[in-house]
Amino acid sequence: MKLAFALFKYFPYGGLERDFLRIAKECQKRGHEISVYTFIWEGEVPDGFNLTKISVKGFTNHQRISDFSDKLSQLLLQESFDLVVGFNKMKDLDLYYAADPCYEAKVSDQHGKLYRLGNRYKVFQSMEEAVFSVDTNVELLFISEIQMENFKKIYHTPAERFHSLPPGVDRSRIRPDNADEIRSRVRKTLAFNHHVLNDGDKLLLMIGTGYKRKGVDRAMEALASLPEPLRSKTFLIVAGEDKLKKYRALAKKLGIENQVHLPGARDDVPELLLATDLFMHPARHENTGTVLLEAIAAGIPQLISGVCGYAFHIEKAKAGRVLSEPFQQAEYNLQLLDMLTSDEWPQWQENALNYMRNSDIFSMPDRVSDIIEETGKKRSRANVYENHKTEIK
Fold it and tell me: For the chain, N or C: smaller number of CB within 10 Å?
């Protein structure tokens, strides 16, 4: 089949983007032709991908997104694709991979009636409706059961269009046999104001783009709250992109600037996980949180907020602790102190690895590719496009 994949932006470190890439590569592996449409692409283009970067206009993000959707619709009329797979909500999709929560539900919870009069709301709501309306036939691919219910309730979307997916952890995150050797080597490379980590130090790790949403400030507050001498022996590294100057200033304000390292995005996440003592994810919003399962695969204990869609995996695995909701900083501070001084570390690690071995946390790309192929057998755009070209002639 000739498949078109559409997403607004691609950069190598985003969760949605990594999911897209693994799904597209799996489809390519199965012999399908892959074309990609986006308006921003950062990083290398995989061999065999036909990439089209659409030039968009607009001063605001929603204006650029609207322009991209309109131009994509026109370009699709010129090609004989069998299916169009979207990773953001937009018009003219055959399948939609739902990485984002329900926009209409968020607006109802956080905004008043006046917000709905703005163009931003009108653009995003119309794109969401184009995907979930009862009048469309878009197949919906979901990694979050909770979010499925929100869409069904608001848009009355038929249940048969929803497909529940297993997680899709990259197998490169599985703890290797030489994990202890990697841990020792990597920790020697991590210097905090010339202090090289030793065996008695505790390393906390956060991974993700968008520091406020991920709760980096919450993690810094918790680190600053630790009593001495534990505080001086505990260090935090945040691998991900954001406005680093702002958070370096916060670390200085809290008196922990020598214990916080903000290197930006990194390519060595699997090794960083192995060098870590505790994975932190006190997110304010998190649709799922694949990174939580990556930490499980690496055998790393976790302290996370209950808002994360995949928090139940950590609870089932007994691989750390999940905070109650609504979030309270005082609880987080106490839990961090308790975990850092606990003797349960070997058990948390073993629980995580046992869960990884006995649960399906890897097969999402395979399942999505199966659904794409099943949908292609039922319907194909190719004949529609050929008829359209004939009419134009």
Answer: C
Q: Name the token pair of 24.
A: 């597209």
User: Phi and psi for 346 in degrees, rounded to 5?
Assistant: -60, -35
Residue 390 has pLDDT above 50, yes or no: no
Query: Is residue 370 over pLDDT 50?
Result: yes
Q: Which amino acid is at 20?
A: F
pTM of the model: 0.87
Q: Provide the percentage of residues in the chain whose pLDDT is more than 90.
A: 82
Question: Nearest to residue 281, comparing CAs of 7, 9, 12, 15?
Answer: 15
pLDDT at 147 over 90: no
Which residues contact residue 205 at a Cβ distance below 8 angstroms, ignoring those fewer than 6 apart? 236, 237, 238, 239, 272, 273, 275, 276, 278, 279, 280, 300
Enumerate helices (H) and strands (E) in the chain, giving the number of each. Answer: 16, 17
For the stretch 303-316, pLDDT in tens is: 999 999 899 999 99
Q: Does the domain spanning 2-166+363-392 belong to CATH 3.40.50.2000?
A: yes
Chain centroid, CA 339 distance in Å: 26
Check if the beta carbon of residue 289 is closer than 8 Å to that of residue 283: yes
Tokens of 192: 């905090």
Specify the DSSP class assigned to residue 233. G
Assigned superfamily of 172-358: Glycogen Phosphorylase B; (3.40.50.2000)
Domain positions in the chain: 2-166+363-392, 172-358
2-166+363-392 and 172-358 share one fold = yes
Closest-CA residue to 208 (of 295, 320, 88): 295
How large is the average pLDDT for residues 261-279? 93
The amino acid occupying position 119 is: N
What are the φ and ψ backbone dihedral angles of 161, each rounded to 5 degrees? -85, -15
Counting residues of the chain whose pLDDT is more than 70, the rounded percentage is 97
Burial class of 354 by CB neighbour count within 10 A (0 to 12, 13 to 18, 19+)? middle
The residue whose two tokens read 């869409």 is 151
- Gap between the Cα atoms of 3 and 49, Å rounded: 10
- For residue 393, what pLDDT band results from cuts at 50, 70 and 90? very low
DSSP letters, 58-120, are -SSHHHHHHHHHHHHHHHHTTS--SEEEESS--SS-SEEEE-S--HHHHHHHH--GGGGGSHH
